[in-house]
């Protein structure tokens, strides 16, 4: 008879084999999870899967996910991305690589409203990258700025990844949102600094744009995006003042987004309404299908007592706990090259968090580290979704240029990962201050 651990290993091998065959990830997770349960417990092992699946998907924390997705989809049709980029350009145009810095600034603000990285890449990339290419920017330099900065939506609240992490661990969504804010803004600042220094040291990457804007034009541009800034304050302010839970704030934000898009931008025609609801339903169904199938796979791992084994192994190591964290981060970077971010988070979190807590680390801090790691995953070939989203919105780009463009940003993300590991207060200070 094969041991439980051996059956679990075979299930993992089956999962990787199905992924290699380009099987949809939710199918791969479900099939390998069910196969593992049958191997461990026979047919009775899958009898409770439907009830457990329903219970998992009824998790209150997950209600926020479709609401934030709806908020982002509404804003995506509003034309707000164009206004954000125009406003940022008016303020950054005098610095080297100003259009690139503008793209990163726009992605940061849009990410603070949508929470979904591919939405940010699609909305900002559609405007910013063609503009940069028309001004002589090199394709790798132009595409890299948007592809990488779009991933900030995963870290800057409201983040879909933090919602999923909360649904698995029970850590407060509001605390996770606060924990991701400072690292997210630091990453945005580091990306802008890189663009400026690179454009200054190698001007061929980003030719100087000879344009001047008056202070009146700059302030007018800020006025055009003020509804978006007020929307961010409404959502995050209502959470951190205690006026609303993150889920309630998502509902209020979605309603406010409809008001802004319809009342101010006049973009809520029937065509756009259909696009909004179809896109929201599609993305939500994809996310929840992954959540459900990942839960089945996790049930199999729990039945095989893998989390207990991992915890016992990690705690028994006679090395510094920070070396353990470093090893975990390295493994996650490698896994992120093969598995999409949401699936990776949902599979590894139940295994790793018990071990992290046993080592005395804060699961909130680890959640921020994990999401920074997942930011790297979405911009890493061959699975990085942001890379292919960029290609789809700007088809004339070569994938090789897009891949080259994100390499410096992977180094920046890795540096931030190391910094937050060494200085946990970067992630834990703000939650402790305001919650």
From TrEMBL:
Transmembrane segments: 32-53, 60-81, 101-129, 141-164, 176-197, 225-243, 249-268, 275-302, 322-352, 364-385, 405-430
Tagged with keyword Cell membrane: yes
Membrane topology: Multi-pass membrane protein
Cellular compartment(s): Cell inner membrane
Keywords: Cell inner membrane, Cell membrane, Membrane, Transmembrane, Transmembrane helix
Superkingdom per UniProt: Bacteria
Entry-linked Pfam families: DctM
InterPro entries: DctM (IPR010656), TRAP_DctM (IPR004681)
Every TRAP C4-dicarboxylate transport system permease DctM subunit domain range: 12-426
NCBIfam families the UniProt entry points to: dctM
PANTHER family: C4-DICARBOXYLATE TRAP TRANSPORTER LARGE PERMEASE PROTEIN DCTM (PTHR33362:SF5), SIALIC ACID TRAP TRANSPORTER PERMEASE PROTEIN SIAT-RELATED (PTHR33362)
Protein's UniProt name: TRAP C4-dicarboxylate transport system permease DctM subunit domain-containing protein
Gene source species: Streptomyces daqingensis
């Amino acid at each position: 008879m094969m041991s439980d651990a051996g059956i679990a290993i075979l299930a993992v091998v089956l999962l990787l084999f199905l992924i290699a065959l380009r099987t949809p990830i939710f199918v791969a997770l479900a099939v390998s999870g069910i196969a593992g349960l049958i191997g461990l417990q026979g047919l009775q092992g899958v009898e409770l899967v439907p009830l457990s699946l329903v219970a998992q998907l009824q998790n209150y924390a997950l209600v926020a996910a479709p609401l934030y997705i709806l908020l982002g989809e509404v804003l995506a049709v509003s034309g707000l991305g164009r206004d954000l980029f125009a406003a940022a350009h008016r303020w950054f145009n005098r610095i080297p690589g100003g259009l690139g810095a503008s793209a990163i600034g726009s992605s940061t603000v849009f990410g603070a409203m949508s929470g979904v990285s591919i939405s940010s890449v699609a909305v900002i990339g559609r405007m910013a990258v063609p503009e940069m290419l028309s001004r002589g920017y090199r394709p790798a330099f132009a595409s890299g700025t948007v592809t990488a900065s779009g991933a900030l939506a995963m870290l800057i609240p409201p983040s879909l990844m933090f919602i999923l992490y909360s649904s698995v661990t029970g850590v407060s969504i509001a605390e996770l949102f606060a924990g991701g804010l400072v690292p997210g803004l630091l990453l945005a600042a580091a990306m802008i600094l890189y663009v400026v220094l690179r454009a200054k040291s190698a001007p061929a990457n980003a030719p100087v744009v000879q344009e001047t804007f008056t202070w009146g034009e700059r302030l007018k541009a800020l006025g055009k995006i003020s509804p978006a800034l007020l929307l961010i304050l409404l959502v995050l302010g209502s959470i951190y003042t205690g006026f609303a839970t993150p889920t309630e704030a998502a509902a209020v934000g979605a309603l406010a987004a409809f008001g802004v898009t319809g009342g101010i931008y006049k973009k809520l025609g029937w065509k756009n309404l259909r696009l909004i609801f179809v896109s929201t339903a599609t993305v939500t169904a994809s996310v929840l299908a992954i959540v459900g199938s990942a839960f089945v796979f996790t049930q199999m791992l729990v039945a095989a007592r893998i989390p207990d084994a991992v915890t016992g192994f990690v705690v028994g190591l006679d090395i510094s706990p920070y070396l353990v964290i470093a090893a975990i981060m390295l493994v996650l970077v490698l896994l992120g090259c093969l598995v999409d971010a949401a699936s990776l988070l949902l599979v590894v979190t139940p295994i790793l968090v018990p071990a992290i807590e046993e080592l005395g680390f804060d699961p909130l801090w680890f959640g921020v580290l994990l999401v920074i790691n997942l930011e790297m995953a979405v911009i890493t070939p061959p699975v990085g979704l942001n890379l292919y989203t960029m290609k789809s919105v700007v088809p004339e780009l070569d994938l090789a240029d897009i891949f080259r463009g994100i390499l410096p940003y992977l180094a920046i993300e890795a540096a931030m990962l190391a910094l937050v590991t060494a200085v946990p207060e970067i992630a834990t200070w703000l939650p402790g201050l305001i919650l």
